[in-house]
Amino acid sequence: MSADLTELYQQVILDHNRRPRNRGRLPTANRVAHGDNPSCGDQCDVFLQLDGDRIKDISFDGSGCAISQASASLMTTQLKGKTAAEAEALYKKFHEIVTTGKEPEEISDLAAFAGVHTFPARIKCATLGWHAALNALKGDAAPATTESHTD
Amino acid sequence: MPAWPDVRADFPILHQQVNGKPLVYLDSAATAQKPRAVIDALVRYYERDNSNVHRGLHALSMRATDAYEGARTRVAKFIHAADPAEVIFTRGTTESINLVAHSWGRAHLKPGDVVLATEMEHHSNLVPWQQAAKASGATLRYVPVLGANAEGGLDLAALDRLLTPSVKLFAFTHISNTLGTVNPAAELCRRARAVGAVTVVDAAQSVGHVPLDVQALGCDFLAFSGHKMCGPTGIGVLYGRRALLDKLAPDETGGGMVVSVDYEGASWKPAPERLEAGTPDIAGAIGLGVACDYLEGLDRAAIARHDSGLARLAYEKLSTLPNIRLLGPADARSGLVSFAFPDVHAHDVVTFADEDGIALRGGHHCNQPLMRKLGLTSTTRASFYVYNQPGEIDALVSSLQRTLKFFRG
Q: Does B192 lie in the same domain as B59?
């Protein structure tokens, strides 16, 4: 297997793909948003229980490739307890990782997605769950789509 | 496998390495590769004859016109149309179907009418009819597909119930791009005609793969793309029976399609010019004509045996993989195989195959409603054409084994 492919399918990603965290509907959710990746048919629903500005609980449900499912799963573990502004900042960091391959200074599981940048077609897979989560935070009724974002 | 000449030498693109491995191109249902003869025809046209067609009185324009109209005659012969004027050059299958949906739909569909399609249509033979039905107040109905893996083909018993005199148009695919199912096109046309419905056949996956005779099929309209049959991209065909085409109002208007224009209005030429406003894809049409020559040189019945032979072999070998779900009929399929694993997504499969130099397609194949009906979001598709060899199926199977081992452990 090539180095690029090993980098794309890191253990962290395979693990989240096999055993997704926080998967399924969240009964206590007060926000929900749906995300679509029209180029491949991947879908992701993100459920949020917001307490004021803070994400008290979060889950996701959907279908898609290992990258999209693992990314959504890992995202839920990263966003729990964060405020909307912190979530936004974290997404910016994640977006930089998947588009440039530049790993963050602090140690983070998000770095597992650095290998995505050598597979440009897969960047949308990695960001699908995040788009849905940010829309849920904003309370946007319209489904998130990876096509309307500039990645 | 039937005996087959190795024609790989005719296709320059195949002789390259992808990710350090010899390219195995199994994505011809998306677009076919081009033989040297087609590529040369494009270069020759641009180097020697390029000029605008019709109205031209100089040498180059006459050569370009002759070549363009010669291509129309060539394509007409390829599909056995009664008259070259029944061949309208378009951008491809999508534009051809949209032309009928717009022009024929606007003139004929009204509230209470039914447009009939099938559950296995590509979006390009589905969305235009949704739009035409919405615009006219007609209802769109679908002939169901049978079987948990769509192995049973179209429900022909249901077709009897669905084909009522309210059905004004029946649009169906000749060969499914997702399932490989070959529909009984002549029978479907015959049954539609019996209730007075106009037929539109999506021949995108069939015209380059099986012998096709529009008069024997008995269809009213038939649409296809050049690029899926070794021709260039950007050129396609709408075939229509002359009597229907002459009554079809143009969807696009402008230069080249008018008899006379004054400041108050204009009058139209007969088909085909009436339906080809603006400068056409001259080089594309010429290239398509050469692609027709190429395929006929290989013998179209032999191509059909070769493609479906490879697909059957692939179906057989893939069925040995643990926990694989194969779609479509087990035999009598055209040159493609579509499959899914419950635990490994199609896009991961395609990424891994690409690593081995194998080009596959993963996704919904512009067939989202059918995917939903089958409880799938995507499949992986391997599709075969004249340049593929049985050994490439072995390469595919070992690549898939490696992928499954990686994800399943």
A: yes
Q: Assess whether B366 carries a catalytic annotation.
A: yes
Q: What is the DSSP string of B136-159?
A: HT-EEEEE-EESTTSTTEE-HHHH
Contacts of B19 in chain A (CB under 8 A): 2
Q: Which of B279, B296, B313 is the last residue of a domain?
A: B296
pLDDT tens sequence across B100-145 = 999 999 999 999 999 999 999 999 999 999 999 999 999 999 999 9
The 3-class secondary structure across B177-210, one letter per residue, is CCCCEECCHHHHHHHHHHCCCEEEEECCCCCCCC
B368 — contact with chain A (CB < 8 Å)? yes
* Structure tokens, B288: 């398509």
Residue A6 host element (H or E): helix A3-8
B352 CB neighbours in chain A (<8 A) are: 5
Q: What CA–CA distance (Å, rounded) separates B84 from B86?
A: 5
Catalytic residue among B219, B230, B292, B366: B366
The reported pLDDT for the residue numbered B63 is 96
Does B272 share its domain with B352? Answer: no
The amino acid at B171:
A
ipTM: 0.84
Q: Please provide the CATH number assigned to the domain covering A3-140.
A: 3.90.1010.10
- Tell me the pLDDT tens digit for each residue of B55-107: 778 999 999 999 999 999 999 999 999 999 999 999 999 999 999 999 999 99
Average pLDDT of chain B to the nearest whole number:
96
Our count of domains for chain B comes to 2
pLDDT (tens digit per residue) in B356-409: 999 999 988 999 999 999 999 899 999 999 999 999 999 999 999 999 999 988
Taking CB atoms and an 8 Å cutoff, what residues of chain B touch A64? 345, 347, 377
Kindly list the distances between the CA atom of residue B257 and the CA atoms of A44, A105, B223, B239, B242, in Å, as whole numbers in the listed order.
Answer: 48, 65, 21, 17, 16
Domain ranges of chain A: 3-140
Query: What's the angle, vertex CA B75, arms to CA B58 and CA B103, rounded to 5?
Result: 90
Q: Are B238 and B88 in contact (CB under 8 A)?
A: yes
Range of the domain at B340: 8-30+299-408
Task: Please answer yes or no on whether A40 and B378 come within 8 Å at the CB atom.
Answer: yes
How far is A95 from A117, CA to CA, in rounded Å?
10
* Residue B167 in domain: yes
Q: Give me the CATH number covering residue B377.
A: 3.90.1150.10
